[in-house]
């Protein structure tokens, strides 16, 4: 695609590039930058919260999860300073439902966002609304996907939007002709929209590195951090990447050896796999992805690694701003994703399914005043517990209203109230609902009410290639896991029929 831009000099792009080079040189060399002037806040003051969220981001993309090939030094450094949750699972492997869980601490059936593009109900409080502390300055920068994409809302005072694909879902009375902050950033830099008055996602991936969405968000976030260095704040930075279209300026940063295809591509057919999974394959083919072609999957994995590196550069700039402003010792940092990415595993792309690559995400938690860096937690956890964890870290522990539990107890070595993890699926028009239960010792049971079900023993079968659900010998295991699932359903008032297909 040809990129259209106005004639003349592009001083905006050059200024951004110069700033990014300066920030990167100052922050990336290992030595701490000189602390900027301003009131120096100390541990004991109200802590800040920096929430870093990625989209469609596999768990196994950084060294803490066994990947020493991807070039993500900022995330690797953050992991070395954080509690690393080795097995974090999403509430539902779909953008809006999982994002709503990360924002509210509720299950999809509780907050009501059970499919994409369902707005978060006004009656459901977000983390800053639940915290309710007027001392905090708050900002949300990036992909929202919970309704009215371009408008500051839900306890966030400052707002920077990057997505123009959701205008048709705006609430009545909202201006659907309004464009994102990133759109205006590109027009100021001299570019012309390619898609009926908007910049498509593919267009944005063809920008120079310093004009891509991660760089735009990094500059916005760093400026917020530096400007509010004398007062407490909450900042949520939500990257689209490494979500499809799997393209970017760093496509060739990694070699085929550094970004190999998954070991379960193409893999053996899983016996009696849910039929809906084949619809996902058909959807990828309809979008032009030759998912059975090894060369295509290899290329996509290299591109995906480049997108991870691109986000990493942005995270590095934001973390530098924390250090430069003397706030690192008083800022809680969390890094996680709304769901994973199959990237060719089981000959699938994207999410939607209950395979590990789709439902498991990274979760890093740096609480500097707990001195818990470098700790790994092997106990499986759910992202429904992220909000109660952050409320406790900010000094406002949940009073029991939320279904999850603070993960700080696990960080202290205390046993969890619930050691099994549960995942929801709402098929809507795609063939039925589902529920999954995951045990600490590696069992995974995925039940669907109108489709085939699956049972895996991940200790013996980590690539999930052998579906044990329909074996006679599995009946006692299935009965025990169903009983555990039904107990959870009673506690959270979930009405799914757990008897399975």
Keywords, separated by commas or semicolons:
single chain, about 500 residues, alpha/beta, Alkaline Phosphatase, subunit A, 8-stranded mixed sheet, 4-stranded antiparallel sheet, 14 helices, about 30% helix, about 15% strand
Can you describe this structure?
The protein is of the alpha/beta class. It has a single domain (45-414), classed as Alkaline Phosphatase, subunit A, CATH 3.40.720.10. It contains 14 helices and 15 strands. The strands form three sheets. An eight-stranded mixed sheet has the order 5-4-6-1-7-9-2-10, with helices on one face. The protein has a four-stranded antiparallel sheet with strand order 12-13-14-15, with helices on one face. Strands 8-3-11 form a three-stranded mixed sheet. Strand 12 and strand 13 form a beta hairpin. Helix 1 (11-27) crosses helix 10 and helix 8 runs parallel beside helix 10 (294-324). The protein starts with 10 loop residues before the first helix and ends in a 9-residue tail after the last helix. The model is unreliable at 1-36 (pLDDT under 50).
How would you summarize this macromolecular structure in one to three sentences?
This protein is an alpha/beta fold and 501 residues long.
What layout of secondary structure does this protein have?
Layout: H1 11-27, E1 48-54, H2 73-80, E2 83-85, E3 88-89, H3 95-104, H4 108-111, H5 127-131, E4 137-142, E5 158-160, H6 181-188, H7 201-205, H8 213-227, E6 233-238, H9 275-286, H10 294-324, E7 331-337, H11 356-359, E8 360-361, E9 363-366, E10 375-377, E11 381-382, H12 386-393, H13 408-411, E12 421-425, E13 434-438, E14 443-448, E15 454-457, H14 475-492
Parallel strand pairs: 1-6, 1-7, 2-10, 3-11, 4-5, 4-6
Antiparallel strand pairs: 2-9, 3-8, 7-9, 12-13, 13-14, 14-15
Helix pairs in contact: 1-10, 8-10
